[in-house]
Amino acid sequence: MTTPLIAVPLTPDLLRGALDVERTPLGLLPHRLPARARAQNTDGQLAMAESQPSGVRLALRTRATTVELDTLPTKRVYAGAPPRPEGLYDLVIDGRLAGQGSVHGGHTLTIDMGAGTFDLTPGTPGTLRFTGLPDTLKDMEIWLPHNETTELVALRADAPVEPAPAARRPVWLHHGSSISHGSDAASPSTTWPALAAARAGVDLVNLGFGGGAMLDPFTARALRDTPADLISVKAGINIVNGDLMRMRAFTPAVHGFLDTIREGHPTAPLFVVSPILCPIHEDTPGPAAPDFRDIADGRIAFKATGDPATVAQGRLTLRTIRAELARIVEQRAADDPHLHYVDGLDLYGERDHAELPLPDRLHPDAAAHRRIGERFADLAIIPLSGRVSI
Question: Of the candidates 179, 250, 241, 234, which has an alpha carbon nearest to the alpha carbon of residue 344?
């Protein structure tokens, strides 16, 4: 006889990794920037990225053997390209991957990269179902798709559900670009920050925003105001491929960003992480532009369109940004012994690119995400925490 499912109230205390939870007419919408920051943002790309719940998961304690989750996803379609794979939900039980699934339907956001336009077609919620789970008291996490805005509508189970106890692990707060967000990762629990957190036994709060690591003051304030034991800031690639600023503006912006974080976390270990290797931007400034030559085959690549001759006038490349970040950290570390620098080339450099090239010339693939995550855990987190959990 099948045990009937009971409705589980969707409450914010079931969520981990979100800085804010918006109540909607249908349910809950997790956000990775607080409302005050969202109100100060005028960029549609960042608004989309922060609403995509990279690192956000439902954390439950239950004996249930069946769990259903209704969500309203927003799926992206790129004009002229074949459909993208549907977002994945990862089920993790007692720290180990136990299942995956997708939710069909939802809204469709059509993006025309050439025209720079967005068109939203409304849709309806769908259902994710996990069955055959162990009939024991267990802690389980449902990691939401890192690349789909996901509105939570309803939760059901065949046994009572309560929030999992707060993890007794250090909290790692990370900020970065689309690479940190998880672009081209296999699933939400296998983005490089999620893999690094699992390896090092820390609790992740991921503020990696696709196209949105721009040293925005409101993001710095969000980092300042979020409780954390360990913080990292990976900066540079978006500054270059957006052609956002020159060296004259970049240096004080970095100092201001770090100053703001230190207002809330004066002694927490703080890592400044420079960009991984990206050959198109090593010596060529931005802006980056999409390369549509293979779009019919489902591949969109990127190219650098700046002039290397303008670097002498302050245009930024990844090579100049790495040197400046290293200099800034060395300067500040004289008064801040808890500030550290991680060279992105130690996470993914020329040898890695020869073995695992960037598929679109900008973002690492799933295997490279794993390599970057393992290296960051081993180089930065584990030496501080002295613990490994895999």
Answer: 234
Q: Is the dihedral of CA 144, 147, 152, 153 positive or negative?
A: negative
Sheet holding 339-342, edge to edge: 203-208, 171-176, 230-234, 270-273, 339-342
Q: Where are the alpha helices (DSSP H) in the chain?
A: 35-40, 44-51, 178-181, 192-200, 217-225, 237-241, 247-264, 279-282, 318-333, 350-355, 366-376, 382-385
Q: Which of 155, 189, 160, 179 is nearest to 71 (CA)?
A: 155
* Mean pLDDT for the chain overall: 94
Cα angle 142-97-60, degrees, rounded to a multiple of 5: 35
Residues 6+ apart with CB under 8 A from 117: 111
pTM beyond 0.85: the answer is yes
In the predicted model, residues of the chain with pLDDT beneath 70 are 1-2, 81-82, 113-114, 294-299, 385-390
Write out pLDDT tens, residues 232-248.
999 999 999 999 999 99
Dihedrals φ, ψ of 220, to 5°?
-60, -40
Block residue for tokens 């931005």: 286
pLDDT at 202: 96
Name which of 112, 103, 42, 38 is nearest 76 in CA terms.
Answer: 112
At 145, list the tokens: 């798709």
Round to whole Å and give the CA distance between 59 and 324.
40
